[in-house]
């Protein structure tokens, strides 16, 4: 595989080993013996069978080169391997944020997989000559996993968003998938001191899949620190998905999604909150990609 610059495409998490200590970050919440889920193999992020083989480095973040179907299959594999696992999705703003927030970067590097949520990440891959198969957005993956969980008899827990949004996503899921096992839900506005209680609640619910919708970097850091204590088999950060699926915030029309203009649709709805993320974030992301492109050219 070659990049456009003639340099071998970066296909795995080259250098990145994280100092972030997931085990000790989680340990305060551990209560061994609470249920049989602690009998799982020891926690080892990235323990997917071929986890490093299909990654493309984009601005220091290893992006899994998976289609949406393959991502669902990967999650099945992770669940069958045992132990807790988590996935993440990134857009331009998150890639830029990871440059400045080492804990976020570590969480992304140590995730079992990271997919391209934003069209800008897909365009960046093309510009860098990396053969990224598909954009796999958090909300699309979330919807696929709800259907998959209903088919497979996996139970789900929803954590995040305002109370009316999280209740709305529960109602949406029940309507859409009557057989889905909903283990529980909790809104995303709680103090750090309530973490232990929430982890215990998720653990007691015996949920298989956990969806965390608390925005970035909060959701990635929360998952990285608390995954083990929740006892779930797989967790995914899904950003604003609860707001969309509950109908509280409208998603961009399909034509805008296809043209990579979803960010513009969101920006118009919430300009004061999002201008920095999109305007500055997109510019900073472009600079990171240009830097990667020129580094590739220089070393080829
Ligand atoms: N949120 C939360 N707890 C917080 C802050 C935010 O649960 O402390 C929720 C918020 O209500 C919204 C989501 O996180 O539902 C953030 O959505 P955003 O659009 O920022 O996420 P993105 O998809 O862009 O990462």
Give an overview in words.
- With 300 residues, the protein is an alpha/beta fold.
- The chain has one domain (31-299).
- It is 49% helix and 13% strand.
- The chain contains 13 helices and eight strands.
- The chain has helices spanning 22-26, 68-81, 92-100, 102-110, 119-128, 138-152, 163-176, 195-205, 218-230, 241-245, 254-258, 262-269, 271-299; strands spanning 55-58, 61-64, 85-90, 113-116, 155-160, 181-186, 209-213, 234-237.
- The strands form two sheets. Strands 4-3-8-7-5-6 form a six-stranded parallel sheet, with helices on both faces. Strands 1-2 form a two-stranded antiparallel sheet.
- Strand 1 (55-58) and strand 2 (61-64) form a beta hairpin.
- Helix 3 crosses helix 13 and helix 4 crosses helix 9 (218-230).
- The longest helix is centred in the C-terminal third of the chain and has 29 residues, at 271-299.
- It starts with 21 loop residues before the first helix and ends with a helix.
- The model is unreliable at 1-17 and 20-52 (pLDDT under 50).
- The structure holds uridine-5'-diphosphate.
- Residues 160-162, 165, 188-189, 213-216, 218, 239-240, 242-243 line the site of uridine-5'-diphosphate.
Number of helices: 13
**Strands ordered across the widest β-sheet:** 4-3-8-7-5-6
Helix content: 40-55%
Largest pleated sheet: 6 strands, parallel
Bound molecules: uridine-5'-diphosphate
Beta fraction: 5-15%
Rg computed from alpha carbons, rounded to a whole number of angstroms:
19 Å
Global structural class: alpha/beta
**On the 0-100 scale, what is the average pLDDT?**
85
Name the shape in a single word. globular
Number of strands: 8
How are helices and strands ordered from N to C?
HEEHEHHEHHEHEHEHEHHHH
Distance between the termini: 14 Å
Catalogue the unreliable spans: 1-17, 20-52
Q: What's the number of structural domains? A: 1
């Amino acid at each position: 595989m070659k990049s456009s610059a003639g340099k071998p495409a970066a296909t795995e998490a080259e250098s990145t080993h994280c100092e972030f200590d997931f085990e000790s970050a989680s340990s305060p919440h551990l209560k061994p013996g609470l249920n049989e889920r602690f009998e799982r193999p020891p926690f080892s992020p990235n323990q997917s069978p071929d986890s490093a083989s299909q990654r493309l480095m984009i601005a220091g973040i290893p992006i899994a080169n998976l289609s949406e179907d393959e991502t669902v299959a990967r999650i099945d594999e992770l669940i069958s391997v045992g132990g807790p696992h988590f996935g993440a999705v990134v857009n331009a703003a998150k890639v830029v944020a990871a440059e400045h927030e080492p804990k976020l970067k570590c969480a992304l590097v140590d995730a079992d997989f990271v997919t391209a949520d934003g069209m800008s990440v897909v365009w960046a891959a093309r510009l860098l000559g990396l053969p990224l198969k598909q954009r796999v957005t958090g909300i699309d993956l979330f919807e696929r996993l709800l259907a998959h969980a209903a088919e497979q008899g996996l139970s789900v827990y929803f954590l995040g968003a305002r109370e009316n949004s999280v209740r709305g996503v529960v109602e949406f899921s029940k309507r859409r998938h009557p057989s889905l096992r909903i283990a529980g839900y909790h809104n995303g506005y709680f103090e750090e001191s309530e973490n232990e209680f929430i982890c215990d609640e998720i653990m007691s619910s015996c949920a298989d899949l956990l969806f965390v919708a608390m925005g970035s970097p909060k959701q990635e850091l929360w998952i990285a620190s608390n995954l083990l204590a929740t006892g779930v088999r797989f967790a995914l950060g899904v950003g604003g998905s609860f707001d969309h699926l509950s109908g509280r915030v409208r998603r961009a029309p399909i034509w805008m999604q296809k043209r990579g203009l979803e960010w513009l649709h969101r920006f118009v709805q919430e300009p004061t909150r999002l201008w920095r993320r999109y305007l500055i974030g997109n510019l900073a992301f472009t600079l990171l990609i240009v830097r990667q492109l020129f580094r590739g050219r220089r070393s080829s």
